[in-house]
Amino acid sequence: MNIESKSYKHCDLIKVTGRVDSSTAPQLADAMNAITDSGRFRIILDFSEMDFISSAGLRVLINAQKNCKRYNRGEVILTAVPQNVYSALDLAGFTSLFTIKENTLDAVGSF
Amino acid sequence: MSDEHIQAAFPGSFASLRLISSFIREAAEKTGFDDCAVYAVETAVDEACSNIIEHAYESEDRGQIQCECCIKPDRLIITLKDQGKPFDPSAICEPNLEVPLEDRQDHGLGLFFMRQMMDEVHFDFVEGVGNVLTMVKMKEKKD
Predict the structure, then answer these.
(1) pLDDT for B68-87, tens place per residue?
(2) pTM of the entire structure?
């Protein structure tokens, strides 16, 4: 897994490439915590190059969403979600808990 | 057509998950599953192996995970064995997917995924062998 972070005026973008499993999920959690620890809670996750996500990765997403949405201070938006990954999110009941956009441009514009 | 058996053993560490996934993906592709079913099998096995490391071995690098695949014309049978403590699936609560965000638990999805994504999931503990998990994925019948 590879993570690239980019900061915009109103939000932060994290591009996740490869596999998010029990081995790599802590790295994703660290990247998201680094942003929220700096007082920023509008985070876009670009999944366009993500191959796989397990429940360990979903745990990171749900905890980040709880943290960001607290006090209405922000949210985690998912973008460019591959079909297989979307099916897993849907099965886990996550599609109602996250805004999902087709591309990062739409997501950046929504903040 | 005769059945094909392939097997491999991996160290019980999270770093093995990527290698186990490759091994399982190859077996699933040989079975003739489409991309969606291959991903489902990969997910179920990843969750099962993560559970073995977390719950049966209770930590990384405590033992091996043996993976066996039996490729049949109409199904893939996957057997995972470990020598950790007996795993009791009934001790894991089913996740409640209907509750609002703040009440969602962050555990329990792994076993749920395994049961949703495979046609059969059996847990056994065999004296002298250890935990034996058997999962079956059927090929969809073409009309």
Answers:
(1) 999 999 999 999 999 999 98
(2) 0.95
